[in-house]
Please model this.
Amino acid sequence: MTARILVVDDVPANVRLLEVRLLAEYFEVLTATSGPEAIEICEHDKVDVVLLDVMMPDMDGFEVCRILKGDPATEHIPVIMITALDQVSDRVRGLEAGADDFLTKPVNDLQLMTRVRSLVRLKTLTDELRLRAATTRDIGIEELLGSRHPNDDQIPKVLLIDEKEESARSIVQMLAGGADLDVAADPHAAVFQAAEGAYECVIVTTEFETFDPLRLCSQLRSIDRTRSLPIILIAGEGEDARIIRSLELGVNDYLVRPVDAHELLARLRTQVRRKRYNDHLRTSVTETIEMAVTDALTGLHNRRYLDSHLKTLFDRAVARRRPLSVMMTDLDRFKSINDTFGHDGGDDVLREFAARLRKNVRGIDLACRFGGEEFVVVMPDTDAAIAKMVAERIRAEIERTPFTVGADGRAVNVTISIGVSSLRHGPDRIEDLMKRADVALYEAKSNGRNRVVARAA
Model:
């Protein structure tokens, strides 16, 4: 796994030492000797992880970290603070400034590399989500990344997996008021609990007598629902090998007993903050894609989605020599509805028609708002005769039941005209299929409206 690591330290010898270590592991290394230089590099270059010294003149590492984490353009870059300060209060201060980890000099090589690799994996995931977010924004929806931001003040829901009652009670007391904590003593049941509960972090202790805690962590990483769930390992002194192995398996962070309550809470907040940021990106991508292919008024798919998905359905029908039909419908004299009841009344009619249309077609059918008062339904595995029967049923249902319009609930009679066309196995194209449906719809409207016309297949 390669990545670009920025080393920030005002002492050249320290910079060179870390640079040599990282180059030996095939990382690409950038260097900076001051806080402002580091910030400028992060803003203009691709940086995957920042190794940041705390004690620097003019601008210390805490201030640099706060600036990086406060800028939407750089807040996703993981920061590991490296310093000679070894007080718990210093680690907590660094974590509260937004640092993703905090290492004390002299830095153990294995700890450094496993930390860097773990954060590079997280950064890769975040980069992928940010790229998808930018791509979805490019298809026409602008209000994406800046529209909503995860709520960092909300108390996180956390699962503690610890079979020792006394140990669990101690952690519960440490996190009182800072987390909504559930405790699971059975590691087998805990995996299912983590998958079913809406947790934002899992804390796993190593004090199991008959079960390997790393197997538990591995199981959590192998399940879709918990694959991206942060895991914090609480280990005992002398368990360095287990800690390093846990980070290789995907554990996000660890603490060594005796655990300081402030540091535990700070590290928990760091993991929850990153999870909420990535969840926010995922949700934004999903919602933006849905907005891009969904008609906001009716909730049906829009023409953009029809244009892309119809080709898939058409090609599949041709390849399998299966029937495919298209139904194109138009609300009769819709302009008079708008003129009489206003556009709000017209919108009521469009929404109600879309709801009825959705109820009268199958789940495999593709119902779309084509534009204005025109709608299209694509019906896979449906021949011309059945498609015409479905169209006639929909037409009759619309005519039979008046629509409710406006706040006063006025009843309005609405009719529709429908044109139907079906796939011709032979030299047929999507354009031909849609054109025949359009011509059939025109005939239906020209011949008196409120009728179905099916073009010969």
Summary: Residues 303-454 form a domain with the Alpha-Beta Plaits fold (CATH 3.30.70.270). The chain is about 50% helix and 20% strand. The chain has three domains: 1-107, 142-292, 303-454.
